[in-house]
Amino acid sequence: QVRMDPRNKGVDLDSLMYSKINGLTEQELKKQEADYIYRYRYNGGGATQVWLSSGRFVVIDLSAGPCTYGKIESEEGSVSYRSMPRLSNIIFPRGLAAPSASSTQDIFVGQLAGLISTTIEHVIAPDIRFETVDMTLRLLVPIIVLQNHNRYNILQAGHNNSIDVKAIEREVKKMVHAGQEVIVISGSHALHEHEKLAVAVSKAMRSHSLHETKSDGRFHVRTKTYLDGAILKEEMERSADVLSAGLLEVSDPSLSSRFFLKQHWMDEQDNVQDSIKHKPIWESYMPRNKKEKRGAGKKKHGAMYRTYGTRVIPVFVLSLADFDAELMMEEESLVWTSKDVVIVLEHNNKMIPLSYVSETTRQFAYPSLAQRHILAGLASAVGGLSAPYERASRIHERPIVNWLWSAGCHPFGPFSNSSQISQILQDVALRTTIYARVDAALRKIRDTSESVQSFASDHLKTPLGEPVKGNKNKSSTELWVEKFYKKVTTMPEPFPHGLVERLEEYLDRLEEQLVDLSSLLYDHRLVDASQNSSDILQSTIFTEQ
């Protein structure tokens, strides 16, 4: 802190980066903890001493702070002066117990190790919010603005509420692998022209009671209205792809034939059914019924057909006027996300006070700025990213929060104010896609292995109907392989020899691919790892069939 003090004119900042740092004098030690205090605010967000950078690193400044922030009247995840190890404990090892220098050093190292462990769990290798096995070649993100007014249009540049569609497209492209095409289109619709959507918004309005402390020191009950994203998504689900196809046709008619097959979405038919739904490519090779022809599309409402090469993630931006001035979505957020849709709330009201505090001031939400919330929703839907302050807990059976890493270069939460995604989180999104493919392949292998084991337990018997006895350490699968294929017997064989040999070769090759994949991930060769994971999943699916 002494070296960071701007009043100290004798400090050479270049020497702090490239030269050996000398120790502090006795006079400087006295000023270390009480004379000058500084904190960081990333792009005007909450005050902190740790934050995510835009590159592949995080910053932990033990000399800064201490900082206090979290949720009011909630202890979970709150950050205080005890959340970070302090250098003052090393410089001035005082206290009631008067610890020795060695024990103080050990405590400090232990606290620092715990901080690094928390950083790895929340930032470097966080939990996956949505696991989506995406093998499509194209990603279509239609940003659909539904507004009940004509006062302004957030898609028009030049005013404070404008959103930058090109910037959103650049950030989304960073979260997908090479070779996958990303198209972001936008369009504005009047809410009163879509009766079902207007009814859906009305149905999704909910209210709950809040107990707040006023200036008189008493609790006051207040009813607050909010928008329930889950109900709104359920009501709007059937209209998503219709609006997407319409926007695409208006934006660029040549794109319609690339993203949709034989779309005549405005044609009226008597049989009203769902609109097109995106599916993984390989599902065209796996018909549910044998009578279905492979790759045959089902005709839908408006002469639409199912397609398999495009994944559609619609973003609905509700631009509402003449509603409650403090209208938000659940959990004091302005965005709701699922694995296939993003819903963002926008209205031209002033900042809304939140139940979050940074130091001695409340945090505020700005409902007129939708750019950051759109990007936060797409980061979760496209990249499977969870907020850096959330972590899944099997004990609690819900996500638990730790607000330590809530500030920095990411669009999540009340303490962030950035419309960009850190390179660390971009790498996490790319790895998440690889993990999802490998996990799906391993699940199919386990299912196949279980079916083989159940088959062996039913049919591996002696001519008298008794179970075959063998080495106790061997499984039933190993027993039937040895009994039927590695030994010459006169017993009937349940599988042909050639099939078992091909299956054995496939499993050996799959094991080699998994080993190669682990080495590619270790070397951070994500492009090669993505191709490897695709090969693993495709070969697993075809072999299973």
UniProtKB/TrEMBL annotation:
InterPro entries for this protein: DUF7906 (IPR057228)
Annotated source species: Aegilops tauschii subsp. strangulata
PANTHER family found in the cross-reference section: TRANSMEMBRANE PROTEIN, TRANSMEMBRANE PROTEIN-RELATED
Pfam family, one: DUF7906
Protein name: DUF7906 domain-containing protein
Domain DUF7906 as annotated: residue spans: 29-126
